[in-house]
Structure formats: structure tokens, C-alpha cells
Recover the amino acids of this structure.
């Protein structure tokens, strides 16, 4: 297991470095470059622009800029935001709680609904329930997240008035009930695609398990069907889902970007888009690297949990 973890960690660091190189190059080679937002203000002369570029180190060759930026990142200095004049890490952490709150809630909803829909779809395969669940999954995977979010706002907020149209809470009211009321809409929208994915994977995994010999043996012994499903089949069918949970993290983060924008949710997704529009490159790179680190950590944890849950995997890892 130790050799496996060292190998996975080395792969993660290599991938993180590649992400940093590609992201840094794209941002700094884009039309206008980092200095464009200062030039568009109209309040700076060319001399001011040159002095600003000298102070920020933007007049140096791109490889030198990258080397300096990477050195600062490793040392814990993620730069200062052009827009807020605050450390990038402080800005990221101030928005991180809102994103985690939204992702955790949507994940719990998706797992709870998706797992049981998948289990029942496998048990009652080719039934009306299974057909409806399959159609729902295909439709959910086909619907753009932003469109579904706008439909939820239009119907449940404007037409029915049941849910707030956006934001994380009502100004001046930070109670749990008020925050939960604002969370329902974006959490359901973000959970839509994940629920469809979980239900499909769970159905396939459950079908593989319930056709195994030990399940037939359990039935022949007269064990109740409910106990067979919950105590034997479900436990083994959930093993592949651990890996899916780690792989779902990038989808959740990308979905959160769109959902937070539609619902004006003050998380990292909305911060990322606002930073791009303002050309706040230090913040954009900070969010890109922070997100990449989260994804790699999520995948690494999923690999570890899968190895612990299945001794055969742990044995191969050793």
C-alpha cells in the first residue's frame, strides 16, 4: 500500500505541475494579457503602465514569470488580487465555505436518491419503475445545468414564490432556517446530474452482485429478500461507488460554477467567473490550482478507501 500511495502521489504532483504550466501560459498569452484591465481604465499613462508592469514583474520573459510564481506558490504566497488588493488565499477561503456547503448538500441528495433508485431499478429491472428511472436519467444528463436552474427560479421562485431566487441568505437574517431555504434551489439543481449518474452506476453494480452465487445461496437458505439486499448485495455493490465518488468531484466543481452564477451563490464558482471578467489573473490562477489540488486529493482518498474496503485491491496495491 505504501508503494501504491507514493506512486499515486507522484502522479498527482506531476499532473498538478502540468495544470499550472498550461493554466499560466493560457492566461498570460491571452489577448490583452494581465495588463489589459489596467489599460482599459483610461486613467493610466504609458509610463504608469510600464512602472506597474515592472512592479508586478510582467515585463520579464514568461518562463521567468512562471518560475517566480511557482516559487511563491510553493512558499505559500499565492499573490494579491488585482481587484480587491487582498491575498488570493484569503479571498478563496472566504468563498470556500459556501461552495462546500452547496456541494455537500447536493452530494448527500444525489447519493441518497441515486443509490436507492439504482437498487430498486436492479431489483425490478425492466419494470415500469425501471423504465421511468432510465428515462429520467437520460433527460437529466441531457438538460443543461443553467437552463434547469433558470426553470427552477422561474417556476418555484417567480410563479409559486416557494423558494428565493438567489443569494445565500436574506440580508440581516443568518438563521439556519433562512440559509437552508436559500440552499434548496441550487442544491437540487446541482444534484440533478449526479443523481442520474449514481442511479445508473448503482443499477449496473447491483445487477452484477445479485446474480452472484452467494446471493442465490442466501435465497436458498430462506433469508428474507430485504436482508439479502441490505446486508449482502448492497454492501458489495457500493464498493465501485467509492471510486465514482472521487471521480464526481470535478463534475461537482464545474456544475457549481454554473449553479452559483445562476443563483448568485457567493462561492468559488462565481468568484472564478467574476475574476475572469475583471481579468484578475492572480485570483484565477489561485482558484485553478486550488481546485486542481482538491480534485487530486479527492481521487487519492477514493483510491485509498477502495483499497481499504476491498482487501483484494489492498493486496494488489502492496
Amino acid at each position: 500500500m505504501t508503494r501504491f500511495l507514493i506512486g499515486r502521489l507522484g502522479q498527482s504532483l506531476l499532473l498538478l505541475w502540468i495544470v499550472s504550466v498550461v493554466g499560466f501560459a493560457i492566461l498570460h498569452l491571452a489577448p490583452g494579457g494581465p495588463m489589459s484591465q489596467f489599460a482599459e481604465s483610461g486613467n493610466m499613462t504609458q509610463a504608469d503602465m510600464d512602472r506597474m508592469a515592472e512592479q508586478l514583474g510582467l515585463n520579464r520573459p514568461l518562463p521567468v514569470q512562471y518560475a517566480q510564481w511557482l516559487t511563491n506558490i510553493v512558499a505559500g504566497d499565492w499573490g494579491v488580487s488585482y481587484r480587491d488588493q487582498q491575498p488570493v488565499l484569503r479571498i478563496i477561503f472566504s468563498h470556500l465555505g459556501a461552495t462546500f456547503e452547496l456541494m455537500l448538500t447536493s452530494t448527500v441528495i444525489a447519493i441518497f436518491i441515486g443509490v436507492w433508485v439504482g437498487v430498486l431499478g436492479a431489483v425490478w429491472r425492466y419494470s415500469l419503475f425501471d423504465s421511468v428511472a432510465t428515462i429520467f436519467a437520460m433527460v437529466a444528463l441531457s438538460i443543461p445545468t443553467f437552463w434547469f436552474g433558470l426553470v427552477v427560479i422561474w417556476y418555484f421562485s417567480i410563479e409559486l414564490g416557494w423558494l428565493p431566487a438567489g443569494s445565500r441568505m436574506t440580508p440581516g437574517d443568518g438563521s439556519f432556517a433562512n440559509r437552508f431555504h436559500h440552499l434548496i434551489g441550487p442544491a437540487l439543481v446541482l444534484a440533478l446530474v449526479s443523481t442520474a449518474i449514481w442511479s445508473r452506476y448503482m443499477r449496473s453494480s447491483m445487477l452484477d452482485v445479485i446474480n452472484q452465487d452467494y446471493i442465490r445461496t442466501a435465497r436458498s437458505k430462506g433469508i428474507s429478500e430485504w436482508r439479502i439486499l441490505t446486508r449482502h448485495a448492497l454492501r458489495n455493490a457500493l464498493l465501485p461507488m467509492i471510486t465514482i465518488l472521487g471521480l464526481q468531484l470535478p463534475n461537482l466543481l464545474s456544475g457549481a460554477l454554473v449553479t452559483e452564477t445562476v443563483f448568485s451563490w457567493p462561492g468559488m464558482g462565481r468568484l472564478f467567473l467574476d475574476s475572469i471578467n475583471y481579468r484578475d489573473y492572480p485570483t484565477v490562477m489561485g482558484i485553478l490550482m486550488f481546485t486542481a489540488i482538491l480534485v487530486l486529493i479527492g481521487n487519492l482518498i477514493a483510491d485509498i478507501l477502495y483499497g481499504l474496503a476491498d482487501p483484494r485491491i489492498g493486496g494488489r496495491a502492496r
